[in-house]
Protein backbone atom coordinates (compact mmCIF):
# COMPACT_ATOMS: atom_id res chain seq x y z
CA UNK A 1 0.00 0.00 0.00
CA UNK A 2 2.81 2.42 0.88
CA UNK A 3 4.60 1.73 -2.40
CA UNK A 4 1.43 2.41 -4.36
CA UNK A 5 0.85 5.66 -2.45
CA UNK A 6 4.45 6.74 -3.00
CA UNK A 7 4.17 5.91 -6.71
CA UNK A 8 0.92 7.86 -7.01
CA UNK A 9 2.54 10.80 -5.20
CA UNK A 10 5.40 10.88 -7.70
CA UNK A 11 2.95 10.85 -10.59
CA UNK A 12 0.97 13.77 -9.17
CA UNK A 13 4.18 15.72 -8.56
CA UNK A 14 5.10 15.31 -12.23
CA UNK A 15 1.70 16.54 -13.46
CA UNK A 16 2.47 20.29 -13.04
CA UNK A 17 5.76 19.82 -14.90
CA UNK A 18 3.99 17.98 -17.72
CA UNK A 19 1.27 20.64 -17.82
CA UNK A 20 3.91 23.38 -17.96
CA UNK A 21 5.64 21.62 -20.83
CA UNK A 22 2.36 21.39 -22.77
CA UNK A 23 1.68 25.11 -22.27
CA UNK A 24 5.26 25.90 -23.26
CA UNK A 25 4.91 23.79 -26.42
CA UNK A 26 1.68 25.60 -27.24
CA UNK A 27 3.47 28.94 -26.97
CA UNK A 28 6.33 27.66 -29.15
CA UNK A 29 3.87 26.45 -31.79
CA UNK A 30 2.06 29.78 -31.76
CA UNK A 31 5.25 31.82 -32.17
CA UNK A 32 7.02 29.62 -34.71
CA UNK A 33 4.01 28.32 -36.68
CA UNK A 34 5.15 29.73 -40.07
CA UNK A 35 8.54 28.05 -39.68
CA UNK A 36 7.59 24.59 -38.42
CA UNK A 37 4.30 23.89 -40.21
CA UNK A 38 4.98 21.48 -43.10
CA UNK A 39 2.41 23.11 -45.41
CA UNK A 40 0.39 26.27 -45.94
CA UNK A 41 -2.63 25.75 -43.65
CA UNK A 42 -4.99 27.33 -46.19
CA UNK A 43 -3.61 25.63 -49.31
CA UNK A 44 -6.37 23.58 -50.95
CA UNK A 45 -5.77 20.53 -53.12
CA UNK A 46 -8.87 18.46 -53.87
CA UNK A 47 -6.73 15.67 -55.34
CA UNK A 48 -5.60 14.74 -51.81
CA UNK A 49 -8.87 15.48 -50.00
CA UNK A 50 -9.75 13.24 -47.03
CA UNK A 51 -6.36 11.56 -47.03
CA UNK A 52 -6.01 9.48 -43.81
CA UNK A 53 -3.12 9.72 -41.30
CA UNK A 54 0.18 8.18 -42.40
CA UNK A 55 -0.28 4.95 -40.43
CA UNK A 56 -3.50 4.05 -42.21
CA UNK A 57 -3.79 2.62 -45.70
CA UNK A 58 -3.66 5.42 -48.23
CA UNK A 59 -1.87 7.81 -45.88
CA UNK A 60 1.35 9.66 -46.69
CA UNK A 61 4.24 10.74 -44.48
CA UNK A 62 4.00 14.22 -46.03
CA UNK A 63 0.58 14.58 -44.38
CA UNK A 64 1.13 12.77 -41.07
CA UNK A 65 -2.31 13.59 -39.61
CA UNK A 66 -4.17 13.46 -42.92
CA UNK A 67 -6.07 16.13 -44.82
CA UNK A 68 -9.57 17.59 -44.63
CA UNK A 69 -12.35 17.74 -47.23
CA UNK A 70 -10.55 20.52 -49.12
CA UNK A 71 -7.14 18.81 -49.10
CA UNK A 72 -5.67 21.05 -46.40
CA UNK A 73 -3.04 19.55 -44.11
CA UNK A 74 -4.49 18.82 -40.65
CA UNK A 75 -1.15 19.08 -38.82
CA UNK A 76 -0.41 22.51 -40.31
CA UNK A 77 -3.88 23.77 -39.41
CA UNK A 78 -3.52 22.52 -35.83
CA UNK A 79 -0.17 24.30 -35.51
CA UNK A 80 -1.61 27.56 -36.84
CA UNK A 81 -4.74 27.03 -34.77
CA UNK A 82 -2.52 27.09 -31.68
CA UNK A 83 -1.68 30.70 -32.55
CA UNK A 84 -5.37 31.65 -32.45
CA UNK A 85 -5.87 29.79 -29.16
CA UNK A 86 -2.88 31.49 -27.52
CA UNK A 87 -3.90 34.97 -28.68
CA UNK A 88 -7.50 34.49 -27.61
CA UNK A 89 -6.74 32.65 -24.35
CA UNK A 90 -4.02 34.94 -23.05
CA UNK A 91 -5.37 38.13 -24.64
CA UNK A 92 -8.86 37.57 -23.25
CA UNK A 93 -7.47 36.65 -19.84
CA UNK A 94 -5.28 39.77 -19.61
CA UNK A 95 -8.03 42.17 -20.71
CA UNK A 96 -10.76 40.64 -18.54
CA UNK A 97 -8.30 40.48 -15.62
CA UNK A 98 -7.48 44.17 -15.97
CA UNK A 99 -11.14 45.17 -16.15
CA UNK A 100 -12.31 42.91 -13.33
CA UNK A 101 -9.38 43.62 -11.00
CA UNK A 102 -9.72 47.37 -11.45
CA UNK A 103 -13.45 47.32 -10.70
CA UNK A 104 -12.95 44.99 -7.73
CA UNK A 105 -10.25 47.17 -6.18
CA UNK A 106 -12.33 50.32 -6.64
CA UNK A 107 -15.40 48.67 -5.09
CA UNK A 108 -13.44 47.26 -2.15
CA UNK A 109 -11.50 50.44 -1.44
CA UNK A 110 -14.29 53.02 -1.64
CA UNK A 111 -17.26 50.88 -0.53
CA UNK A 112 -20.61 52.61 -0.11
CA UNK A 113 -22.59 53.56 -3.20
CA UNK A 114 -19.67 52.88 -5.55
CA UNK A 115 -19.37 49.34 -4.20
CA UNK A 116 -23.15 48.85 -4.42
CA UNK A 117 -23.28 50.07 -8.03
CA UNK A 118 -20.37 47.91 -9.20
CA UNK A 119 -21.58 44.76 -7.43
CA UNK A 120 -25.16 45.10 -8.67
CA UNK A 121 -23.82 45.39 -12.22
CA UNK A 122 -21.65 42.35 -11.48
CA UNK A 123 -24.71 40.40 -10.30
CA UNK A 124 -26.54 41.31 -13.50
CA UNK A 125 -23.65 40.02 -15.58
CA UNK A 126 -23.54 36.81 -13.53
CA UNK A 127 -27.21 36.17 -14.20
CA UNK A 128 -26.74 36.27 -17.98
CA UNK A 129 -25.28 33.30 -19.93
CA UNK A 130 -21.89 34.29 -21.34
CA UNK A 131 -22.36 32.40 -24.59
CA UNK A 132 -25.66 34.19 -25.35
CA UNK A 133 -24.07 37.58 -24.72
CA UNK A 134 -21.18 36.64 -26.99
CA UNK A 135 -23.48 35.44 -29.76
CA UNK A 136 -25.53 38.63 -29.56
CA UNK A 137 -22.51 40.96 -29.62
CA UNK A 138 -20.61 39.13 -32.36
CA UNK A 139 -23.80 38.83 -34.37
CA UNK A 140 -24.02 42.62 -34.25
CA UNK A 141 -20.38 43.59 -34.83
CA UNK A 142 -19.30 40.59 -36.95
CA UNK A 143 -16.88 37.70 -36.34
CA UNK A 144 -13.14 38.34 -36.18
CA UNK A 145 -10.20 37.54 -33.92
CA UNK A 146 -10.17 40.95 -32.23
CA UNK A 147 -13.95 40.91 -31.75
CA UNK A 148 -13.73 37.51 -30.05
CA UNK A 149 -11.09 38.83 -27.62
CA UNK A 150 -13.23 41.93 -27.00
CA UNK A 151 -16.30 39.82 -26.24
CA UNK A 152 -14.35 37.59 -23.87
CA UNK A 153 -12.94 40.61 -22.04
CA UNK A 154 -16.37 42.14 -21.39
CA UNK A 155 -18.04 38.85 -20.38
CA UNK A 156 -15.31 37.25 -18.26
CA UNK A 157 -14.30 40.01 -15.82
CA UNK A 158 -16.90 39.17 -13.16
CA UNK A 159 -14.91 36.52 -11.27
CA UNK A 160 -11.90 38.85 -10.98
CA UNK A 161 -14.12 41.60 -9.57
CA UNK A 162 -15.65 39.42 -6.89
CA UNK A 163 -12.32 38.03 -5.67
CA UNK A 164 -10.38 41.32 -5.65
CA UNK A 165 -13.28 43.22 -4.08
CA UNK A 166 -13.35 40.82 -1.13
CA UNK A 167 -9.58 41.09 -0.61
CA UNK A 168 -9.63 44.87 -1.04
CA UNK A 169 -12.36 45.19 1.61
CA UNK A 170 -10.20 43.19 4.03
CA UNK A 171 -7.16 45.35 3.28
CA UNK A 172 -9.06 48.64 3.62
CA UNK A 173 -9.73 47.85 7.30
CA UNK A 174 -6.04 47.61 8.18
CA UNK A 175 -4.29 50.40 10.07
CA UNK A 176 -1.65 51.20 7.46
CA UNK A 177 -4.42 52.00 4.94
CA UNK A 178 -6.07 54.37 7.43
CA UNK A 179 -2.70 56.03 8.05
CA UNK A 180 -2.14 56.42 4.30
CA UNK A 181 -5.57 58.04 3.92
CA UNK A 182 -4.92 60.44 6.79
CA UNK A 183 -1.57 61.36 5.24
CA UNK A 184 -3.40 62.60 2.18
CA UNK A 185 -2.01 60.02 -0.23
CA UNK A 186 -4.08 59.78 -3.41
CA UNK A 187 -6.40 56.72 -3.51
CA UNK A 188 -4.91 55.58 -6.82
CA UNK A 189 -1.42 55.47 -5.28
CA UNK A 190 -2.70 53.53 -2.25
CA UNK A 191 -4.43 50.99 -4.49
CA UNK A 192 -1.43 50.53 -6.79
CA UNK A 193 1.24 50.42 -4.07
CA UNK A 194 -0.56 48.44 -1.38
CA UNK A 195 -3.62 46.67 -2.78
CA UNK A 196 -2.37 45.39 -6.14
CA UNK A 197 0.62 43.41 -4.71
CA UNK A 198 -1.68 41.75 -2.17
CA UNK A 199 -4.25 40.57 -4.73
CA UNK A 200 -1.71 39.56 -7.36
CA UNK A 201 -1.51 35.92 -6.19
CA UNK A 202 -5.26 35.40 -6.44
CA UNK A 203 -5.46 37.10 -9.83
CA UNK A 204 -2.55 35.00 -11.16
CA UNK A 205 -4.20 31.74 -10.11
CA UNK A 206 -7.57 32.76 -11.54
CA UNK A 207 -5.94 33.90 -14.77
CA UNK A 208 -4.11 30.59 -15.25
CA UNK A 209 -7.39 28.73 -14.83
CA UNK A 210 -9.18 31.14 -17.17
CA UNK A 211 -6.88 30.53 -20.15
CA UNK A 212 -8.27 27.03 -20.75
CA UNK A 213 -11.83 28.23 -20.29
CA UNK A 214 -11.37 31.00 -22.84
CA UNK A 215 -9.81 28.61 -25.35
CA UNK A 216 -12.91 26.42 -25.07
CA UNK A 217 -15.06 29.57 -25.37
CA UNK A 218 -13.31 30.54 -28.60
CA UNK A 219 -13.62 26.98 -29.93
CA UNK A 220 -17.36 27.05 -29.21
CA UNK A 221 -17.80 30.35 -31.03
CA UNK A 222 -15.75 29.14 -34.00
CA UNK A 223 -17.76 25.92 -34.02
CA UNK A 224 -20.89 28.05 -34.39
CA UNK A 225 -19.27 30.15 -37.12
CA UNK A 226 -18.90 33.21 -34.87
CA UNK A 227 -15.17 33.01 -34.19
CA UNK A 228 -12.29 33.90 -36.49
CA UNK A 229 -13.11 34.33 -40.14
CA UNK A 230 -12.42 31.45 -42.55
CA UNK A 231 -10.07 30.26 -43.87
CA UNK A 232 -8.02 31.14 -40.74
CA UNK A 233 -7.18 27.91 -38.92
CA UNK A 234 -9.02 27.49 -35.62
CA UNK A 235 -9.47 24.34 -33.57
CA UNK A 236 -13.18 25.04 -33.10
CA UNK A 237 -13.73 25.63 -36.81
CA UNK A 238 -11.87 22.39 -37.56
CA UNK A 239 -14.25 20.55 -35.24
CA UNK A 240 -17.20 22.08 -37.10
CA UNK A 241 -15.74 21.05 -40.47
CA UNK A 242 -15.06 17.52 -39.27
CA UNK A 243 -18.43 16.72 -37.71
CA UNK A 244 -19.90 15.98 -41.15
CA UNK A 245 -17.16 13.45 -41.89
CA UNK A 246 -16.95 11.61 -38.56
CA UNK A 247 -17.88 8.25 -40.10
CA UNK A 248 -15.54 8.48 -43.10
CA UNK A 249 -12.74 10.82 -41.94
CA UNK A 250 -12.54 10.72 -38.15
CA UNK A 251 -9.17 12.48 -38.06
CA UNK A 252 -10.53 15.87 -39.18
CA UNK A 253 -12.34 16.46 -35.87
CA UNK A 254 -10.39 14.12 -33.58
CA UNK A 255 -6.96 15.76 -33.65
CA UNK A 256 -8.12 19.35 -32.99
CA UNK A 257 -10.39 17.95 -30.27
CA UNK A 258 -7.40 16.24 -28.64
CA UNK A 259 -5.43 19.51 -28.88
CA UNK A 260 -8.23 21.37 -27.06
CA UNK A 261 -8.52 18.72 -24.33
CA UNK A 262 -4.76 18.58 -23.67
CA UNK A 263 -4.43 22.37 -23.59
CA UNK A 264 -7.37 22.90 -21.23
CA UNK A 265 -6.26 20.03 -18.99
CA UNK A 266 -2.73 21.43 -18.82
CA UNK A 267 -4.01 24.90 -18.00
CA UNK A 268 -6.23 23.60 -15.20
CA UNK A 269 -3.44 21.46 -13.71
CA UNK A 270 -1.05 24.40 -13.82
CA UNK A 271 -3.65 26.64 -12.20
CA UNK A 272 -4.27 24.14 -9.40
CA UNK A 273 -0.54 23.88 -8.78
CA UNK A 274 -0.17 27.67 -8.66
CA UNK A 275 -3.09 27.91 -6.24
CA UNK A 276 -1.39 25.45 -3.88
CA UNK A 277 2.03 27.06 -4.21
CA UNK A 278 0.74 30.60 -3.67
CA UNK A 279 -1.56 29.69 -0.78
CA UNK A 280 -0.56 31.96 2.16
CA UNK A 281 -1.38 29.23 4.68
CA UNK A 282 1.09 26.89 3.02
CA UNK A 283 3.75 29.63 3.00
CA UNK A 284 3.18 30.26 6.73
CA UNK A 285 3.66 26.54 7.47
CA UNK A 286 6.88 26.51 5.44
CATH overall fold name? MetI-like fold
Helix content: over 70%
Order of helices and strands: HHHHHHHHHHH
- Counting DSSP E segments of at least 2 residues, the number of strands comes to 0
Structural class: mainly alpha
- CA-CA gap between termini: 28 Å
How many separate helices? 11
Q: What is the CATH level 1 assignment?
A: Mainly Alpha
User: What is the level-2 CATH architecture name?
Assistant: Orthogonal Bundle
The pLDDT mean sits at 86
Main beta-sheet strand count, sense and barrel state = none
Based on CA atoms alone, the radius of gyration comes out at 23 Å
Beta-strand residue percentage: under 5%
The CATH fourth-level homologous superfamily? MetI-like
Q: What's the overall geometry? A: elongated
Polypeptide structure, described:
With 286 residues, the chain is mainly α. It has one domain: Orthogonal Bundle (MetI-like fold). Helix content is 74%, strand content 0%. It has eleven helices and no strands. Helix 1 crosses helix 2 and helix 9 packs antiparallel against helix 10. The longest helix is centred in the N-terminal third of the chain and has 37 residues. The radius of gyration is 23 Å and the shape is elongated. 36% of the residues are buried. The N terminus is likely disordered.
Describe the secondary-structure layout.
Blueprint lengths: L1 H35 L37 H37 L1 H15 L3 H12 L3 H11 L2 H15 L2 H8 L4 H37 L11 H8 L8 H27 L2 H6 L1
